[in-house]
């Protein structure tokens, strides 16, 4: 059975030619999800192409032969890769529309947000690596390596937990540090629930509850 029927292919052509943003990748990817939540937050409409880098390779090949998501196709047809660069583009777009960017263009807050995002990305990358290790045939899995990954993931979450002493990580307002952190934790809780010792992270758990209940996160469910 073809993974993309003709109607779908037609729809995609219209979208890439017709002036809308198009986001490729499943929302169970924390990197795709942070981009989608950001677009929701900024009110930038987009088409979501819900294709898996593993299960839908034939359908993805003509769109993105790198098999790496997220990929954002701009209304011009230009393709952007790497969530950090995509977010940078979205912040610029938001600023042009008079919306406060989730990461300011300059100043000490920018640095703080970027450094907390760096911690969230370490935690998230290590969690994704744990999942990839689990996907390997049983005899090729290396428990010592998984232990190291788990230690790094938890260390990064510990450092974020320590920093969170109010409703948000930086400046008493929602920033990309919060969205990236909650997207990473969302992935762990959804894909690797046994790796999320909730009781160890009360402040982060509160942040997750608050943000997951917000319209921007609710519009981006993990199973799409
Ligand atoms: N640094 C990249 C990481 C993206 C990433 O690792 N995406 C995963 C899905 S969670 C992926 O595409 N995996 C397929 C692969 O790496 O081959 C970003 O932030 O965009």
UniProtKB/TrEMBL annotation:
Q: Where is the GST N-terminal domain?
A: 19-98
Q: Which InterPro entries match?
A: Glutathione-S-Trfase_C-like (IPR010987), Glutathione-S-Trfase_C_sf (IPR036282), Glutathione_S-Trfase (IPR040079), Glutathione_S-Trfase_N (IPR004045), Thioredoxin-like_sf (IPR036249)
Q: Which domain of life is it from?
A: Bacteria
Q: Which residues form the GST C-terminal domain?
A: 79-224
For this protein, the record's Gene3D superfamilies field holds:
1.20.1050.10, Glutaredoxin
Q: Which Pfam families match?
A: GST_C_2, GST_N_3
The entry's protein name is GST-like protein YibF
